[in-house]
């Protein structure tokens, strides 16, 4: 009889422990992104009449989820917070000079896309976006010998 009581007590303990509620899974804590926007400017040769562009602080910044859908947009890189809070996941960032009009002599357009990066819970990730000239401005100055001959 004692064996049956011990067996019954063991079964009751197993049943009681299997009926405990499981904690619902909470989404991971957000991670933080420190995004640096820079500009690469290479001028082959020029003596004067350089076209100026806005500084990188005026560039528009868009952070995309890895699937390509935008999740955050900043009209000015200068207005971005020091740390951007993002849910854990895969992302990439794009920055541009926000003047994507048809290419013109007076319209230098800069654009850059970061490498894909991963945000982890309670971790900080530093990412750089290097913007380069995406259209080309050409200026031709002829010497007086050419202009007089034609």
What does this protein structure show overall?
With about 150 residues, the protein is α+β, with helices and mostly antiparallel strands. The protein has helices spanning about 1-20, 145-150; strands spanning about 30-40, 60-65, 70-75, 85, 90-95, 110-115, 115-120, 125-135. Strands 1, 2, 3, 4, 5, 6, 7 and 8 form an 8-stranded mixed β-sheet that branches. A hairpin with a 4-residue loop joins strand 2 (about 60-65) and strand 3 (about 70-75). The N and C termini lie far apart (about 120 Å).
Note the topology.
Elements (H helix, E strand, L loop, with lengths): L1 H17 L12 E10 L19 E6 L4 E5 L9 E3 L2 E8 L13 E4 L3 E3 L4 E10 L10 H6 L1
Parallel strand pairs: 1-8
Antiparallel strand pairs: 1-4, 2-3, 2-5, 5-6, 5-7, 6-8
β-strand percent reads 25-35%
Q: What would CATH call the architecture of the domain at 31-43 and 53-133?
A: Sandwich
Q: Mind telling me the C-alpha Rg? A: 30 Å
Number of DSSP E strands: 8
Averaged pLDDT: 74
Entry keywords:
2 helices, 150 residues, eight-stranded mixed sheet, Immunoglobulin-like, 15% helix
Provide a short characterization of the protein structure.
By secondary structure, the protein is an alpha+beta fold. Helices cover 15% and strands 33% of the residues.
């Amino acid at each position: 009889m004692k064996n049956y009581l011990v067996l019954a007590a063991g079964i009751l303990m197993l049943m009681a422990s299997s009926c405990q509620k499981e904690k619902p899974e909470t989404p991971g804590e957000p991670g933080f992104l420190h995004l640096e926007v820079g500009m690469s400017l290479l001028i082959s040769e020029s003596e004067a009449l350089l076209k100026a562009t806005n500084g990188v602080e005026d560039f528009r910044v868009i952070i995309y989820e890895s699937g390509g859908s935008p999740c955050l947009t900043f009209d000015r890189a200068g207005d971005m917070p020091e740390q951007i809070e993002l849910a854990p996941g895969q992302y990439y960032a794009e920055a541009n000079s926000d003047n994507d009009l048809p290419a013109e002599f007076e319209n230098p357009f800069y654009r850059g896309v970061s490498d894909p990066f991963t945000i982890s819970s309670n971790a900080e990730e530093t990412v750089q976006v290097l913007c380069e000239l995406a259209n080309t401005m050409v200026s031709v100055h002829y010497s007086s010998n050419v202009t007089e001959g034609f």
